């Protein structure tokens, strides 16, 4: 897992490699100012950090079966003595691990 400083360095390099970047204000297109570039680097560094630290949450949410499907799995597990629901949830968690 990368440190915040390493992710910020990656963000800085990505912004530098993407230059020149432009903005449009009231229809007037101009290259970003030094302050705009600095803010863009900070924003991208923070986004990379948040994705690394918390990205697993949205990935898990997208991967979990619907509540109805989970309830159906739990019902049939109880009827059949199976572990379908536990297995499905364990797979989502193992496929999308929480960072340490």
What does the model show?
The chain has 100 residues and is mostly helical. 71% of the residues lie in helices and 8% in strands. It contains four helices and two strands, in the order αββααα. It has helices at residues 4-18, 34-63, 67-80, 84-95; strands at residues 22-25, 28-31. A two-stranded antiparallel sheet has the order 1-2. Strand 1 (22-25) and strand 2 (28-31) form a beta hairpin. It is elongated, with a radius of gyration of 22 Å. The mean pLDDT is 97.
Please outline the major beta sheet.
Answer: 2 strands, antiparallel
Count of helices?
Answer: 4
Strand content: 5-15%
Termini, distance in Å? Answer: 8 Å
Q: Unreliable stretches, pLDDT < 50, 5 or more residues?
A: none
Main sheet: strand order: 1-2
Provide the structure class: mainly alpha
The helix/strand series, from N terminus to C terminus, equals HEEHHH
**What general outline do the C-alpha atoms trace?**
elongated
Q: How many runs of DSSP E, i.e. beta strands?
A: 2
Task: Bin the helical content.
Answer: over 70%
Return Rg in Å: 22 Å
């Amino acid at each position: 897992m990368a440190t915040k400083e390493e992710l910020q360095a990656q963000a800085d390099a990505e912004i530098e490699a993407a230059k020149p970047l432009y903005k449009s204000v009231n229809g007037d297109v101009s290259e970003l100012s030094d302050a705009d570039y600095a803010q863009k680097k900070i924003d991208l560094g923070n986004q990379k950090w948040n994705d690394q630290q918390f990205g697993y949450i949205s990935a898990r949410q997208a991967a979990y079966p619907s509540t109805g499907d989970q309830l159906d799995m739990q019902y049939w597990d109880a009827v059949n003595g199976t572990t379908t629901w536990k297995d499905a949830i364990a797979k989502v968690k193992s496929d999308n691990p929480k960072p340490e």
